[in-house]
Amino acid sequence: MQADTSIDNNEKSLQEMLSHSSDFKSSDFTSGDRHYRLFYLDTMIEQAAVQDHIIRPLLNHSNSSIREAVTVLECIETELLSDASQALIKGKTVVQIESEAKLYILGTELRKERAVNIPINERVLRGSNEALIENLDTNINLLRKQIASSDLVVKSYHLGRRSNTRISVLYLDSLANEEVVKEFDRRIRSADIDYVEAPGFLSELIQDQRFSLFPQILVTERPDRVKSYLMGGKIAILTDGSPDCLILPVSFWAFFQSPDDYQINWLLGSTFRFLRMICFIIGISLPGFYVALVTFDPRILPFEIVQTIQSSMQYTALPPVLEAIIMLLVLEILREASVRLASPIAQTIGIVGGIVIGTIVVQSNLISTMTVVVTALTGIASFIIPSYEMSSAARILPYPIIIMSSFLGLLGLEISFLALLTHLARINTMGIPYFYSGLSLNTIKDTFFRAPLLSLNKRPKEGLPKDEKRLRVRRGRNE
């Protein structure tokens, strides 16, 4: 819709476009022979900026154009009321001169944001203590400080018919694979949705397998981790209003990596990474393994252990499969309660609830002591996984494995693992196999374990980088 030369007509049209919102305001003043009217949302503007950088300069420079007089950095001319209404929603001020059909959009946004703080979900012993926040511009600023290179590309999108959420995609032009960038661009442009709540909505819109428990997009709140993945040829996705960054494409092994692995000796880093993978296997298979042994195959265990298990189960009323499922559900309830409640209460619920429930169910002969031990080990094993998304998958997988083991014993456990591996092998992330880098001889040095830095002379293949060479000089010798 074109702007009118009448200020009053434009004001009425803008009021209709903004659904007659009560925070839509206008202000008139005259400078010389010109009559100005300002349109703005008083809940979205910095009033001191409007007064000092727009009104006062226009009063003092009555013969100058608006672009020459105002002292704000952003000044855009338009003749469309639709552009003006969108600008008002974002906190900008629109200025019109009487009898002119031209509108001036001036940047006067009110910026209220929390300070850059330490990471909450991805704490490390060594490394950066900065975390992303909800402001998109601040997050881009943090990453540009980390990567002081003209090669860093920032592309902006607007997603959501009603929310009009701003999304920025970052990648290094000389490293990121063009096909991956084009595929992401195609998927994000084809998404037609009312609003976007990142990162959950966004990841579901662009991921390949929508019915898989396993995460196919890495979520992080650490700028230094985003930098490391950008240096590997991957792309990062930031959303306005979210402190999380999405990284793709990633492999299964990326969810077991931690920034700590690269800040300590490579032997220690490799040990801790291997421990995380072992704990993942324990977390998904230990309850099913216990049910299979107790129900079908107790003879493969040493006689002393069998006696201990039988003595703990002698007076219990429930079968092992129900014991395992009930205790895992109780563990999940305690875990969710500790997350949703306030921090001091959550700690009390976690400690007291665990002790009281564990003691009562054993003393009442509802659950055997061995089942309590197995459940506790399963819960602790899932805590060590650094990725919340992968940890959540490890919390759900034990249930179908327990059911299969209760029907077929160890054979059911083997079938479950075979089905799990088959599913993982069929998953793609942006068209790249989920196990891609783990099965490559060149990049296996940074999957199951972390090899010495001098051996990591090539970038991971999971991102399909243009330039695979990462280290070209080793202790003074050209590679």
UniProtKB/TrEMBL annotation:
Keywords: Membrane, Transmembrane, Transmembrane helix. It comes from the Bacteria. One of its GO terms (cellular component) is membrane. GO terms for biological process: spore germination. The chain crosses the membrane at residues 274-293, 313-334, 341-360, 366-385, 397-421. InterPro entries: Spore_Ger, UPF0353/GerABKA_families. Belongs to the GerABKA family. This is Spore germination protein. It comes from Paenibacillus cremeus.
